Amino acid sequence: MIAVIIRIALRYGAGALVAHGLLGAGDAAALSADPDIQMALETGVGLTLSFAAEAWYALARRFHWSK
Fold first, then answer.
1. What is the pLDDT of residues 42-66, one digit of tens each?
2. Which of 34, 35, 41, 56 is most deeply packed, by most CB within 10 A?
3. 0.70 exceeded by pTM
4. Contact, 31 vs 10, CB < 8 A?
């Protein structure tokens, strides 16, 4: 499921860059279809989400939010 969301985000991001003239149409197609970029983003999103969950747990313990 996360791969689908990342692929959609890459397409919209590449489209925005093309609209602003920062990226060519061919480059945008390569960016949104490159599986290596998608895998790197999936890893980054996974690491970010796990870090956020652990940080939230640490804050909950520190401020006694948990029961």
1. 888 889 999 999 999 999 999 998 6
2. 41
3. no
4. yes
Cα–Cα separations (whole angstroms), residue 2 to 8, 17, 44, 63 = 10, 22, 11, 32
For 11, 16, 38, 48, the CA distances from 4, given in Å and listed in that order, are: 11, 18, 10, 17
By residue count, the chain amounts to 67
Three-state SS annotation for the chain: CHHHHHHHHHHHHHHHHHHCCCCCHHHHHHHHHCHHHHHHHHHHHHHHHHHHHHHHHHHHHHCCCCC
Dihedral sign (CA 47, 8, 3, 10) = negative
Residue type, 65: W
- Please identify which residue in the block is written with the tokens 């599986």: 35
